[in-house]
C-alpha cells in the first residue's frame, strides 16, 4: 500500500492524503489501493462474496465525496460482516482506533493514517474479523 515510514514527516504518503482530498485522480488511486489490498487478503474464491464499495460515496447530485470517511468499505453477502476504513492525517493519531459496531451493522470500523505501522495493524484486524481463528 502507499505507506510512509512513521518518521517521514512532510514527505511521501502523508502529503498524498492531503493531495488526495483535493485531487480527484489521486483520491481514486488511493481508493483503488485499499480495494486491491483488501482483495489480496481474501482467500481465493471469497472475493465474489464481498460488495465493494459497500457505502455510497456520492452526493445526491452524483458528485463524489472525497473526505476519506470512508476511504474503503466492504460487506460480505454470506456473513453480513462489513469493514469500513476511515483515514485521518498521521499526526492526528497515535495508533489505529477500531471498534465493532454491532448496532444492526456487524461492522469493523478502523480509523487510521497512511503509515506502515498502521497498515500492519489494519491488516491483522481485518484478517481476524473476516477469518476468525482457524478459518484462514
Gist?
This protein is an alpha+beta fold and 136 residues long. It has helices at 13-20, 24-41, 116-130, and strands spanning 50-51, 72-76, 82-87, 97-101, 107-112.
Structural description of this entry:
The chain has 3 helices and 5 strands; from the N terminus they run ααβββββα. The chain has one domain. A hairpin with a 5-residue loop joins strand 4 (97-101) and strand 5 (107-112). It has a 5-stranded mixed β-sheet. Helix 1 crosses helix 2. It has helices spanning 13-20, 24-41, 116-130, and strands spanning 50-51, 72-76, 82-87, 97-101, 107-112.
Key attributes of the depicted protein:
136 residues; alpha+beta; five-stranded mixed sheet; 3 helices; 5 strands; globular; disordered N terminus
So what's the oligomer here?
single chain
End-to-end distance: 22 Å
Contiguous helical run count: 3
Could you report the average pLDDT, rounded to the nearest whole number? 85
Task: Give the percentage of residues in beta strands.
Answer: 15-25%
Largest sheet descriptor: 5 strands, mixed
E-strand count: 5
Poorly predicted segments:
1-15
Please render the helix and strand layout as text:
Layout: H1 13-20, H2 24-41, E1 50-51, E2 72-76, E3 82-87, E4 97-101, E5 107-112, H3 116-130
Helix pairs in contact: 1-2
Amino acid at each position: 500500500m502507499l505507506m510512509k515510514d512513521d518518521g517521514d514527516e512532510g514527505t511521501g504518503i502523508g502529503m498524498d492524503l492531503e493531495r488526495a482530498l483535493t485531487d480527484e485522480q489521486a483520491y481514486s488511486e488511493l481508493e483503488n489501493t485499499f480495494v486491491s489490498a483488501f482483495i489480496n487478503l481474501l482467500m481465493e474464491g471469497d472475493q465474489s462474496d464481498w460488495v465493494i464499495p459497500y457505502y455510497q460515496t456520492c452526493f445526491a447530485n452524483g458528485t463524489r465525496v472525497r473526505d476519506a470517511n470512508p476511504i474503503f468499505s466492504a460487506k460480505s453477502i454470506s456473513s453480513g460482516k462489513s469493514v469500513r476504513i476511515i483515514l485521518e492525517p498521521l499526526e492526528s493519531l497515535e495508533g489505529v482506533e477500531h471498534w465493532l459496531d454491532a448496532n444492526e451493522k456487524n461492522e469493523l470500523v478502523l480509523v487510521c493514517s497512511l503509515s506502515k505501522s498502521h497498515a500492519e495493524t489494519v491488516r491483522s484486524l481485518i484478517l481476524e474479523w473476516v477469518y476468525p481463528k482457524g478459518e484462514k
